[in-house]
Amino acid sequence: MKQKIIPIVSILAGVLAFMLSIRYFNAEQAKLNDQKARLDASAAMVAVVVADKDIPANSPLTVSDISQTPVQKSTLRETPIYPEDFKKIVGRKLMYDLKKGSMILWSDIEGGSAMLAPQLESRIKPGLRAISINVSGAHAVSGMVRPNNRVDVLGTFSFPSKTIEGELEAVTLTVLQDVTILATGNEMAHKRLQNTTSINGYQPQKSYSTVTVEVTPREAELLTFAQTVQGRLTLALRNSDDVSFEKDLPEINFQQLETSLPELNEYRQKNIRNKKNL
Fold this sequence. Notes:
By secondary structure, the chain is α+β, with helices and mostly antiparallel strands. The chain has seven helices and eight strands; from the N terminus they run H-E-E-H-H-H-E-E-E-E-E-H-E-H-H.
C-alpha cells in the first residue's frame, strides 16, 4: 500500500511544483513587461521648437529663427512649443534672450501667457479659483518659489493703532495657509514636470513680479482686498508634505516684536525637536 502511495504523492508534489513555477515565471514576466513599458515611455521622443540661432530679446520671430528637435518626453520641464504651433509664434516678440538650440517656451513669447490660459483653466480644481498677486524678490523667497510649491501668504499692513488714537501702526499677520502656486509670472508647471534640469541650455525663469495661486472664492476676495490696502504680501515656502494648520496665529506689531521674541524662539526650537523625534 505504501509503495502505491509514494508515487502518487510524488506526482502530486511534481504537479504542485510545476504550477508554482508557472505562477512564478508569469509574475516575473509581468514585472519585465512593466519595466519595459516604463523604459519605452521614458525613451519616447517628441519634437519641440528650438532657436536655430542666438536670438536677442524683443526680436520678432521669423521662420528662419526657429527649427525643431526631438527630446525625451520624460525630460520636458515646461510648456514647450510644438511644431504644429509654428504659425502661432511667427511674428511675435521674444521676452528673453535665447541661445542657439534652446527650447522655446510659451513663457518666452510675448502674449504667450494668454495663449496658455486654456491650459491654466484646466488645472484649476472645481470649486476653486486662480488669482494673481503681486509679489517678487525677497517676498517670494528670493524668487525660489516655483509652480506646484505650497506656501503661506503673509501680509504687512498699516492699521489704526489700538493704543494711540489717530496713529497708524505696521501689523504683520498670516492671511492664508497651505496655498498651491499655479504659476510664477508666465511660468506654469508642465504635467510631465519631474525633472528640474535645463534642456538645451534653457534655465528656469529668473524673475517674476506675480504669482498665481489656487484659492476658494472667499479667499480670492480676501486676497483682492489685501492687495488694495496699504501694505505688501510675502510668501512663506512650505514642505510639500506639510499639511499642518496653525491655529490662533497672533498679529505681530512693534510691541509684540519686542516682548515675544523669547517665546517665539522657544516655540520654534521645541517644534523642531518634536519633529525630529517622530
